[in-house]
Backbone:
């Protein structure tokens, strides 16, 4: 049987039931024909024996030359033969009915087992499909989490690399400025030392006072230079912090946008999960409906078989005394019974 997605389970069940009934009816009709031929061979024996008895009676009776022929014994023998043939036909009918009833019970059991098996296979396939969908959903979620972690790690590495590059640039710039300041400081120091040595040569009281003032000014200048360096460092640190804050704000906005996208995707996944659960409930309900439909069809089959059985028992059969042997009459009867059996296979829908 070729599977088609347009066929429902009820149509499949009806076709399987009709096909099984036709096959069983063909087998049953073949068995009936064989049994009828066997019984017809057996039924010829009593006829031959009755004919021999009649010939023996005619031979044993004395021949009457002058009297009329005896008609009553011949009619009695014919009546007995008819009764015997009727009894034999009744026995054959009862045995065939018993066989048909047994076959109907076996057929019903086979169809019930087949329906149960199909229902179990359908349930197993639905459970497998649901399990596969759940596993695929779990895999997708795990893959999504892994991708998010990789993405966040890559972004963090990029931001860290940019911060490191900026720090290296600032460090090199500070080293360059410090080198320039050291060079100027050394030059100024050398000049001061030279001038100091020159002034020491022409020393007087006023120059001593000036030297002291110069030393104090040098100390103040060093203090101011240190304060200036500290202010410059603070300003550079503030600029760096501002740049970092701007970059962090940008990265925060990106991360928030990505979180919103991820929330939307999670909502879509949740909606898909709810849709799958509703589809599972609908499939379960359809499975229950199909099982109810199968039960109803099995009950209809039982009712049709019961009607067919009662129809075979109650149907009148006329046997003419001048007809052929009972085997021929019974063989003519079998196609009508097969037609009666094939009629319930048509679906009421």
Residues:
């Amino acid at each position: 049987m070729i599977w088609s997605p347009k066929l429902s389970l009820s149509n499949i069940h009806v076709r399987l039931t009709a096909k099984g009934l036709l096959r069983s009816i063909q087998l049953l009709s073949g068995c009936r024909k064989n049994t009828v031929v066997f019984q017809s061979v057996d039924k010829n024996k009593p006829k031959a024996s009755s004919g021999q008895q009649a010939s023996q009676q005619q031979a044993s009776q004395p021949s009457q030359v002058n009297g009329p022929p005896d008609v009553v014994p011949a009619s009695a023998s014919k009546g007995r033969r008819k009764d015997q043939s009727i009894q034999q036909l009744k026995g054959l009918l009862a045995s065939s009915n018993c066989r048909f009833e047994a076959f109907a019970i076996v057929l019903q059991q086979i169809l019930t087992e087949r329906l149960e098996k199909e229902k179990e296979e359908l349930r197993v396939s639905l459970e497998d499909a649901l399990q596969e969908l759940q596993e695929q959903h779990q895999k997708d979620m795990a893959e999504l989490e892994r991708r998010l972690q990789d993405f966040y790690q890559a972004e963090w590495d990029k931001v860290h690399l940019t911060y490191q590059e900026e720090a290296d640039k600032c460090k090199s710039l500070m080293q360059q400025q410090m080198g320039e300041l050291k060079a100027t400081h050394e030059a100024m120091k050398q000049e001061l030392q030279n001038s100091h040595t020159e002034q020491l040569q022409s020393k007087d009281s006023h120059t001593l006072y000036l030297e002291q003032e110069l030393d104090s000014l040098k100390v103040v200048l060093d203090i101011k230079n240190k304060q200036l360096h500290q202010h410059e460092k603070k300003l550079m640190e503030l600029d760096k912090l501002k740049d970092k804050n701007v970059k962090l704000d940008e990265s925060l906005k990106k991360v928030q946008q990505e979180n919103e996208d991820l929330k939307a995707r999670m909502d879509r996944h949740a909606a898909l999960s709810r849709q799958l659960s509703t589809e599972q409930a609908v499939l379960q309900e359809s499975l229950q409906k199909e099982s109810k439909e199968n039960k109803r069809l099995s009950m209809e089959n039982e009712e049709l078989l019961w009607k067919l059985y009662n129809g075979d028992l109650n149907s009148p059969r006329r046997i003419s005394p001048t007809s052929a042997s009972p085997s021929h009459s019974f063989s003519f009867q079998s196609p009508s019974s097969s037609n009666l059996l094939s009629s319930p296979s048509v679906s009421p829908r």
